[in-house]
Predict the structure.
Amino acid sequence: MIIDLRSDTLTKPTTGMREAMFSAPVGDDVFGEDPTVNALEEKIAKLFGMEAAIFCPSGTMTNQIAIRLHTRIQTEVICHKYSHIYLYEGGGIMANSLASVKLLDGDLGKITATQVAASINPDDIHAPETTMVSLENTMNKGGGSIYTLDEIKPIHALCREKGLKLHLDGARLFNALVETGENPADWGAQFDTISICLSKGLGCPIGSVLLGSKADIKRARKVRKVFGGGMRQAGFLAAAGIYALDHQVDRLKEDHARARKLGEMLLDLPVVSEVLPVSTNIVIARLEGTTPEEFMSKLSQKDIKSVKFGADLVRFVTHHDFGDEQLEEFGRRIR
Ligand SMILES: *Cc1c(COP(=O)(O)O)cnc(C)c1O
């Protein structure tokens, strides 16, 4: 048995999800005529109390569309230096939107309103105009850390006051919400746009959604087209998203419980000096006296897969296809 903890994107559709996909009514979504895509977009927008949503092939695309909506040439995005939009989207802020980025530091990948306030550029010919702030919840490179609503509210208020757009890279937002018990609509009220991945812990094969105002999502359809993301009978994929929202949200808690146990098991190893606080389904271990390459190669001899996440860091992500049996087996093998 291979224990693959490289990512929660590795999950394969469950039987119920496959059946929902197989029987989905479809049409041409570029014409706006796919009933299942339309149903998914309406369902998720309503859940977050936002006006509209757009279904896209990836979370990189939904984030990059949001950046295009909220910037112009010679403007600037504020985000944490560990942000996915900066580290893992191929320089898209520059390549897609000709915008600059200001990177902030902060514990576990999170930033505060005070930091944002100090980072807004002055109205000065030398500086790119700050137009947008982007947050990430959960924070991947912060070890799956969670922003609470109370941490977001002051940032939202500041953005309102300064006329900045506020975007959320909520690739794993549902992981945060099942932990805190917060209401999706309260989150929807804080942001101009929210990106959510269906293809991670929610277990869909493909797809992300961008939520926002009617006007923004209308513009987003044009941007998606030029990014090459206009899909035709995409309802087969959207059906998986509807199924996941109905059946596979609450179970994310199980991933979190297993991640906490996995973190404890790792901490027992002499080569692991620290495990970042485990808040959701991401476990980041810091190594001592060995390298990620050496550690990971030992693990892979035991059919355990993980990813390097920094000079002395290795990441493990729990997911739908990692159950109690795999967790026990993981413990046995690393011992
Ligand atoms: C996975 C992920 C994305 C989007 O990734 P895609 O592979 O393009 O869907 C965006 N932000 C974060 C934090 C992610 O983990």
